[in-house]
Design a protein that fits this description.
Elements (H helix, E strand, L loop, with lengths): L2 H7 L4 H19 L5 H16 L8 H29 L9 H25 L1 H23 L4 H8 L3 H9 L4 H18 L10 H26 L7 H6 L2
Helix pairs in contact: 2-3, 4-5, 5-6, 5-10, 6-8, 6-10, 8-9, 9-10
Length: about 240
Protein backbone atom coordinates (compact mmCIF):
# COMPACT_ATOMS: atom_id res chain seq x y z
CA UNK A 1 0.00 0.00 0.00
CA UNK A 2 1.47 3.36 -1.01
CA UNK A 3 1.43 6.48 1.13
CA UNK A 4 -0.70 8.27 -1.47
CA UNK A 5 -3.39 5.57 -1.34
CA UNK A 6 -3.40 5.72 2.46
CA UNK A 7 -3.77 9.50 2.37
CA UNK A 8 -6.62 9.18 -0.10
CA UNK A 9 -8.43 6.66 2.05
CA UNK A 10 -8.14 8.65 5.26
CA UNK A 11 -8.66 12.12 3.81
CA UNK A 12 -11.34 14.07 5.69
CA UNK A 13 -14.73 13.66 4.02
CA UNK A 14 -17.76 15.97 4.19
CA UNK A 15 -19.49 13.43 6.43
CA UNK A 16 -16.50 13.26 8.77
CA UNK A 17 -16.21 17.03 8.89
CA UNK A 18 -19.88 17.49 9.81
CA UNK A 19 -19.73 14.65 12.33
CA UNK A 20 -16.61 16.09 13.93
CA UNK A 21 -18.17 19.55 14.18
CA UNK A 22 -21.29 18.13 15.82
CA UNK A 23 -19.22 16.13 18.29
CA UNK A 24 -17.02 19.05 19.33
CA UNK A 25 -19.96 21.45 19.55
CA UNK A 26 -21.97 18.98 21.62
CA UNK A 27 -19.10 18.39 24.05
CA UNK A 28 -18.46 22.12 24.48
CA UNK A 29 -22.13 22.94 25.08
CA UNK A 30 -22.56 19.93 27.40
CA UNK A 31 -19.67 21.06 29.63
CA UNK A 32 -20.53 24.74 29.61
CA UNK A 33 -24.34 25.02 29.25
CA UNK A 34 -26.28 21.79 29.84
CA UNK A 35 -25.32 18.13 29.80
CA UNK A 36 -28.29 17.43 27.53
CA UNK A 37 -26.25 18.85 24.67
CA UNK A 38 -24.25 15.63 24.89
CA UNK A 39 -26.94 14.20 22.61
CA UNK A 40 -25.55 16.47 19.89
CA UNK A 41 -22.13 14.92 20.36
CA UNK A 42 -23.73 11.48 20.16
CA UNK A 43 -25.27 12.38 16.80
CA UNK A 44 -21.86 13.30 15.47
CA UNK A 45 -20.11 10.27 16.95
CA UNK A 46 -22.65 7.52 16.27
CA UNK A 47 -24.97 9.01 13.64
CA UNK A 48 -22.84 8.24 10.55
CA UNK A 49 -22.31 4.65 11.68
CA UNK A 50 -26.04 4.12 12.21
CA UNK A 51 -26.78 5.54 8.76
CA UNK A 52 -24.17 3.24 7.19
CA UNK A 53 -25.61 0.16 8.91
CA UNK A 54 -29.05 1.13 7.61
CA UNK A 55 -27.50 1.44 4.12
CA UNK A 56 -28.62 5.07 3.89
CA UNK A 57 -25.06 6.40 3.73
CA UNK A 58 -22.46 5.08 1.28
CA UNK A 59 -19.29 7.09 1.87
CA UNK A 60 -16.76 4.36 2.70
CA UNK A 61 -14.86 1.84 0.62
CA UNK A 62 -14.35 -1.79 1.64
CA UNK A 63 -11.08 -1.08 3.45
CA UNK A 64 -12.69 1.64 5.57
CA UNK A 65 -15.68 -0.58 6.34
CA UNK A 66 -13.43 -3.42 7.54
CA UNK A 67 -11.36 -1.04 9.66
CA UNK A 68 -14.52 0.45 11.20
CA UNK A 69 -15.99 -2.97 12.00
CA UNK A 70 -12.73 -4.13 13.60
CA UNK A 71 -12.54 -0.93 15.63
CA UNK A 72 -16.16 -1.45 16.69
CA UNK A 73 -15.37 -4.97 17.95
CA UNK A 74 -12.41 -3.63 19.90
CA UNK A 75 -14.67 -0.97 21.41
CA UNK A 76 -17.21 -3.67 22.34
CA UNK A 77 -14.53 -5.71 24.14
CA UNK A 78 -13.04 -2.71 25.94
CA UNK A 79 -16.43 -1.29 26.90
CA UNK A 80 -17.72 -4.64 28.11
CA UNK A 81 -14.66 -5.30 30.26
CA UNK A 82 -14.86 -1.78 31.70
CA UNK A 83 -18.56 -2.19 32.54
CA UNK A 84 -17.94 -5.54 34.26
CA UNK A 85 -15.07 -4.09 36.30
CA UNK A 86 -17.24 -1.13 37.37
CA UNK A 87 -20.06 -3.45 38.49
CA UNK A 88 -17.68 -5.80 40.31
CA UNK A 89 -15.80 -2.93 41.94
CA UNK A 90 -18.82 -0.91 43.05
CA UNK A 91 -20.73 -3.96 44.33
CA UNK A 92 -17.78 -5.82 45.88
CA UNK A 93 -18.99 -7.79 48.89
CA UNK A 94 -22.59 -7.84 47.65
CA UNK A 95 -24.66 -10.18 45.51
CA UNK A 96 -26.96 -7.45 44.18
CA UNK A 97 -26.66 -4.86 41.44
CA UNK A 98 -27.71 -1.48 42.80
CA UNK A 99 -26.84 2.18 42.77
CA UNK A 100 -24.17 3.26 40.30
CA UNK A 101 -23.66 -0.34 39.16
CA UNK A 102 -27.12 -0.30 37.58
CA UNK A 103 -26.02 2.23 34.96
CA UNK A 104 -23.02 0.05 34.02
CA UNK A 105 -25.25 -3.03 33.95
CA UNK A 106 -27.68 -1.28 31.59
CA UNK A 107 -24.86 -0.37 29.19
CA UNK A 108 -23.45 -3.90 29.42
CA UNK A 109 -26.86 -5.44 28.68
CA UNK A 110 -27.38 -3.25 25.61
CA UNK A 111 -23.87 -4.03 24.31
CA UNK A 112 -24.15 -7.77 24.90
CA UNK A 113 -27.64 -8.15 23.45
CA UNK A 114 -26.71 -6.14 20.35
CA UNK A 115 -23.59 -8.22 19.80
CA UNK A 116 -25.37 -11.52 20.42
CA UNK A 117 -28.31 -10.91 18.12
CA UNK A 118 -26.14 -9.41 15.40
CA UNK A 119 -23.89 -12.50 15.43
CA UNK A 120 -26.83 -14.90 15.41
CA UNK A 121 -28.56 -13.00 12.61
CA UNK A 122 -25.46 -12.99 10.39
CA UNK A 123 -24.61 -16.63 11.10
CA UNK A 124 -28.00 -18.35 11.12
CA UNK A 125 -30.32 -15.96 9.27
CA UNK A 126 -33.52 -14.39 10.66
CA UNK A 127 -35.58 -17.53 11.35
CA UNK A 128 -32.98 -19.64 13.13
CA UNK A 129 -31.53 -16.60 14.90
CA UNK A 130 -34.96 -15.57 16.20
CA UNK A 131 -35.77 -19.13 17.27
CA UNK A 132 -32.54 -19.57 19.20
CA UNK A 133 -32.75 -16.11 20.75
CA UNK A 134 -36.27 -16.76 22.01
CA UNK A 135 -35.33 -20.15 23.46
CA UNK A 136 -32.26 -18.73 25.25
CA UNK A 137 -34.15 -15.86 26.81
CA UNK A 138 -37.17 -18.01 27.55
CA UNK A 139 -34.95 -20.35 29.56
CA UNK A 140 -33.25 -17.37 31.25
CA UNK A 141 -36.52 -15.82 32.38
CA UNK A 142 -37.97 -19.19 33.40
CA UNK A 143 -34.97 -19.82 35.66
CA UNK A 144 -35.36 -16.33 37.12
CA UNK A 145 -39.06 -16.92 37.86
CA UNK A 146 -38.43 -20.35 39.38
CA UNK A 147 -35.65 -19.11 41.65
CA UNK A 148 -37.74 -16.10 42.72
CA UNK A 149 -40.88 -18.08 43.61
CA UNK A 150 -39.73 -21.48 44.79
CA UNK A 151 -41.88 -21.20 47.93
CA UNK A 152 -44.95 -19.74 46.25
CA UNK A 153 -46.44 -22.16 43.71
CA UNK A 154 -49.26 -19.80 42.74
CA UNK A 155 -46.91 -16.96 41.83
CA UNK A 156 -44.59 -19.41 40.11
CA UNK A 157 -47.36 -20.65 37.81
CA UNK A 158 -48.73 -17.14 37.16
CA UNK A 159 -45.39 -15.57 36.29
CA UNK A 160 -44.28 -18.68 34.45
CA UNK A 161 -47.00 -18.00 31.90
CA UNK A 162 -45.23 -14.75 31.01
CA UNK A 163 -42.33 -16.69 29.45
CA UNK A 164 -44.63 -19.02 27.47
CA UNK A 165 -44.67 -16.74 24.38
CA UNK A 166 -40.89 -17.15 24.09
CA UNK A 167 -41.19 -20.91 23.52
CA UNK A 168 -44.40 -20.90 21.48
CA UNK A 169 -43.11 -18.25 19.09
CA UNK A 170 -39.67 -19.91 18.91
CA UNK A 171 -41.49 -22.95 17.48
CA UNK A 172 -43.60 -20.82 15.13
CA UNK A 173 -40.69 -18.89 13.59
CA UNK A 174 -39.67 -21.81 11.38
CA UNK A 175 -43.18 -22.36 10.04
CA UNK A 176 -44.80 -18.93 9.75
CA UNK A 177 -41.97 -16.40 10.10
CA UNK A 178 -43.91 -13.26 9.22
CA UNK A 179 -46.90 -14.25 11.32
CA UNK A 180 -44.54 -15.00 14.19
CA UNK A 181 -42.85 -11.64 13.64
CA UNK A 182 -46.13 -9.77 13.92
CA UNK A 183 -47.07 -11.83 16.99
CA UNK A 184 -43.74 -11.02 18.64
CA UNK A 185 -44.26 -7.29 18.13
CA UNK A 186 -47.80 -7.55 19.51
CA UNK A 187 -46.56 -9.48 22.55
CA UNK A 188 -43.84 -6.86 23.08
CA UNK A 189 -46.42 -4.05 22.89
CA UNK A 190 -48.79 -5.90 25.24
CA UNK A 191 -46.10 -6.53 27.86
CA UNK A 192 -44.99 -2.89 27.69
CA UNK A 193 -48.51 -1.86 28.61
CA UNK A 194 -48.97 -4.71 31.10
CA UNK A 195 -45.82 -3.90 33.05
CA UNK A 196 -46.45 -0.16 32.90
CA UNK A 197 -43.08 0.62 31.32
CA UNK A 198 -44.49 3.72 29.64
CA UNK A 199 -45.33 5.39 32.97
CA UNK A 200 -42.31 6.48 34.98
CA UNK A 201 -44.37 8.33 37.58
CA UNK A 202 -42.30 9.65 40.48
CA UNK A 203 -39.61 6.97 40.36
CA UNK A 204 -36.14 7.93 41.50
CA UNK A 205 -33.05 7.39 39.35
CA UNK A 206 -32.30 3.93 40.73
CA UNK A 207 -35.79 2.61 40.06
CA UNK A 208 -35.75 4.14 36.58
CA UNK A 209 -32.50 2.30 35.87
CA UNK A 210 -34.01 -0.95 37.17
CA UNK A 211 -37.01 -0.46 34.91
CA UNK A 212 -34.79 0.34 31.92
CA UNK A 213 -32.59 -2.72 32.55
CA UNK A 214 -35.62 -5.00 32.84
CA UNK A 215 -37.08 -3.50 29.67
CA UNK A 216 -33.87 -4.13 27.73
CA UNK A 217 -33.49 -7.72 28.90
CA UNK A 218 -37.14 -8.66 28.37
CA UNK A 219 -38.31 -6.53 25.44
CA UNK A 220 -35.26 -6.28 23.18
CA UNK A 221 -35.24 -10.02 22.23
CA UNK A 222 -38.94 -9.80 21.33
CA UNK A 223 -38.62 -6.59 19.31
CA UNK A 224 -35.40 -7.58 17.54
CA UNK A 225 -36.70 -11.04 16.65
CA UNK A 226 -40.03 -9.67 15.45
CA UNK A 227 -38.46 -7.04 13.21
CA UNK A 228 -35.99 -9.57 11.77
CA UNK A 229 -38.77 -12.06 10.97
CA UNK A 230 -40.82 -9.43 9.14
CA UNK A 231 -37.95 -9.14 6.65
CA UNK A 232 -37.91 -12.86 5.79
CA UNK A 233 -39.25 -14.41 2.63
CA UNK A 234 -42.30 -16.66 2.15
CA UNK A 235 -43.18 -19.38 4.69
CA UNK A 236 -40.66 -22.19 4.90
CA UNK A 237 -41.30 -25.74 3.72
CA UNK A 238 -41.75 -28.44 6.38
CA UNK A 239 -38.12 -29.57 5.99
CA UNK A 240 -36.79 -26.01 6.23
CA UNK A 241 -39.03 -25.36 9.20
CA UNK A 242 -37.58 -28.36 11.03
CA UNK A 243 -34.04 -27.08 10.40
CA UNK A 244 -34.95 -23.64 11.78
CA UNK A 245 -35.80 -25.01 15.22
Amino acid sequence: MTSSSSARRWRASPVGTVAGALTVTGLLLATTVDMRFLVLAALGTFGPGVLRELHWLHDQDEFQRQAARRAGYHAYLAGGIAAVLVIAGVQAGSVEIAGLALAAALVLAVMWLTWLFSCLLDFFGPQRAASRTLVVFGVFWLMFVVLSHLKNLGSLLAEGLVVLPFFVLAWATGRWPRVAGVALLLVAAATIVLFGWLHSGDLDHEHLLIRALTFVIFEVPLLASGLALLRTGPPASPDEAAKAC
